[in-house]
Amino acid sequence: MEKTLRLTIKEIVRSHLKKKIGKVFGQCLTAVGWVGGTLPELYEKDGMVELSMADVAGGGFAVGAALMNTRPIYVIRYQGFNWYNAPMILNYACKSMEIWKQPCPIFVRSIAMEGGIGPVAGSSHHSLYFRMPGIKIVSPMSPKEYIKIYQKFLSDKDVYYVSEHRGSYNNTSEFKNDIKEKKQLIIIAISITRFEAEKAKKNLEKQGYKIGIIHVVWIKPFKLKKNEINAIKKTKHGCILLDDDYVDGIANALGNKINLDTGKKVHTMGLKDKSAGFSKRTDNLPPNAKEIEKKIKKIISD
Amino acid sequence: MLNKKKLIKIFKTASLCRNFEKITFKKIQEKIIKFPVYLSAGQEFIASSLSQMTSELRVKPMIFAQHRCHSTYLAFGGNMKKLINELQGNISGATFGIGGSASLHSKEINMYGHDGHMGTQGPIGVGACFVSRKPTIVFLGDASAEEDYVLAALGWASTKKLPILFVVEDNNLSILTKKKVRRNWEMSDVAKSFKMGGYQLDDNPKNIYRFKEKIFKKPMLLNINTHRLFWHAGAGQDSYKTFDRYKIIKKKLGILGNKIDQENFIRINKLWKKHSD
Ligand SMILES: Cc1ncc(C[n+]2csc(CCOP(=O)(O)OP(=O)(O)O)c2C)c(N)n1
Ligand SMILES: [Mg+2]
Predict the structure, then answer these.
(1) Could you give the CA distance from residue B251 to residue B50 in angstroms, rounded to a whole number?
(2) What is the pLDDT of residues A250-301, one digit of tens each?
(3) Residue A122: pLDDT band with limits 50, 70, 90
(4) Pure H helices in chain B
(5) How do the domains of chain A map onto residue ranges?
(6) Contacts A–B by Cβ distance under 8 A
(7) Contact state of B123 with A65 under an 8 Å Cβ cutoff
(8) pLDDT tens-digit readout, A213-250
(9) Which of B115, B116, B148 sits opposite A56 (nearest CB)?
């Protein structure tokens, strides 16, 4: 049986602790389902540290740990909690190399989820971190992507914001870009939208459309490869960028960048510009395959 | 007990800090320094006493200070040339001309820079102490101590029984807002309610020195009442009647006090001249 992303993360965390690379900090780690089953059943004596519920200070504790030449993993159980956890990570750890030549690397595991969880905690909040210098933002959705990122982090001096999504934890397969041949439009997808993007692409292809896809793991720094730029340039309708955050953040910023690189229109889709409610009727979910399909058809027919 | 020999040592350090600030005051007036500077004159006996105590204990603590940090840096042995260069924005400065007056950092003395957001040194110092278990001093202003995340950091340091000392340099001011306008409680009581040692004292070295054998064994907080001689930032004086402990101790030491003071003044002036553009 192939390994799930869940198990992959769990094994990485276990080895991080066993090899004493750094401690794992977070709230309610050793209870409540071990963070979606992504943590090994270990305790403070093993380096799995339960913090108090002081979110702002908690981010600071992780920064202090990172200053000591250890590499803490800092678990933020819902990305929305970053409103309180982020300040010292962004204003201290991310600036530390530049101001003091003092490495302060933290592996921030920030976890998204949505659907029936209301206005506070849900969805990805990577746009919150995006505007600041000194941060690397990644969003791995497959086992191999996660392993690669963790390994890169081990030899890096920067803070990594790892934008996870609970909806990907059962995933065992890897993603593939498709930019071969001339496409009408290319989908560029981030985080959990990558799964629905693949579905939309397949459905559209069945109907005769020629749709490409580029999977984004590295959000910051973000750089399109030459062949990707060329593929977008060749399209008639440019691309559509999908995100699991509000579009007035990473989606529109990267859209602008891609537009400058390719001269093509970049449409964006993400969360709607409203708060999520608990009920189905009032929820705010990332674009699903149907919505993506509909939007692409409209772009092509306009 | 603080004997005369040790008092003289502490005074020598304080005199270094005081004269540095006095001369820096002039450099600000002369516009040789062109950005905000947070002078610590009037408060120098806190860091000077603590550095004497830690050196007697043969402990080299980790230091987490905040914006008003010149005396902390100098008292614990920070390189003065690098500070002079930093204040002129030079690349040879303590933080390469980026951090300025408020963010001094020194690997040699285990002092970690401050990011300018008051009180962040609380949680960051606690996190560093938690993983390293090294003796740690976190310096806070009486206003920074009010930050919610500082209070949370005290709570966690107490829970984890860390070898950490919180020092509140209580000059009764947040820029110009007095403590009684901001709160009706004292940090020493807050510390006690978090089940750690919490004490209220003035910055007489004799009173600070009493804690020598107690620090770093358990988490502890000293709220030390002191007096800021100059403006919050820049070169100016809010009042000419501010209590000045340096003057009192200098007088008490008589000719020797004067001699130490003058020697430092001459030496630091020379150093400034040598390292000014
Ligand atoms: C988070 C944050 N809020 C507000 C400020 C603005 N500020 C800078 S210094 C200061 C007062 C600090 O007072 P205190 O901590 O007592 O130190 P002191 O200046 O008296 O030495 C304030 C309000 C800041 N730097 N950071
Ligand atoms: Mg104050």
Answers:
(1) 22
(2) 999 999 999 999 999 999 999 999 999 999 999 999 999 999 999 999 999 9
(3) confident
(4) 4-29, 44-56, 70-75, 80-87, 121-132, 148-159, 179-182, 187-193, 205-209, 245-252, 254-274
(5) 5-168, 185-301
(6) 107
(7) no
(8) 999 999 999 999 999 999 999 999 999 999 999 999 99
(9) B148
Residue among B174, B181, B203, B227 whose CB has most ligand 1 atoms within 8 A, to mutate: B174
Q: Tell me which of B147, B170, B171, B175 to substitute to probe ligand 1's pocket, judged by most ligand atoms within 8 Å of the beta carbon.
A: B175
Tokens 């979910």 identify what position? A285
Residue A190, strand partner residues: A216
Give the pTM: 0.97
Q: What are the tokens at A285?
A: 């979910």
Nearest CA in chain A to B111: A100
Domain residue ranges in chain B: 4-275
* Token code pair at residue A49: 């540290």
Tokens coding B146: 């009010």
Which superfamily does CATH assign the domain made up of B4-275 to? Answer: Thiamin diphosphate (ThDP)-binding fold, Pyr/PP domains (3.40.50.970)
Amino acid letter, A236: K
Instruction: Please report the residues numbered 74 through 113 in chain B whose beta carbons come closer than 8 angstroms to any beta carbon of chain A.
Output: 95-96, 98-99, 103, 105, 107, 112-113
* Spatial contact of A240 and A200, defined as CB atoms under 8 Å apart: no
Which of A132, A133, A81 has its CA nearest to residue A109? A81
Residue type, A27: Q
Cis amide prior to A221 (ω within 30 degrees): yes
A76-101 pLDDT per residue, tens: 999 999 999 999 999 999 999 999 99
Q: B119 CB near a chain A CB, below 8 Å?
A: no
Tell me if A5-168 shares its fold with A185-301: yes
Q: Is the CB of B67 under 6 A from ligand 1?
A: yes
* Partner residues linked to A39 by β-bridges: none
Please report, as a single letter, which amino acid is at residue B72: T
> Strands, E, within A124-259: which ranges?
135-138, 159-165, 185-190, 211-216, 218-220, 239-246
Would you state the structure tokens that stand for residue B213, as one six-digit string? 């054998």
- The correct answer on CATH 3.30.365.10 for the domain covering A5-168 is no
Q: Phi-psi bin for B119: left (phi > 0), alpha (psi -120 to 50), beta? A: left
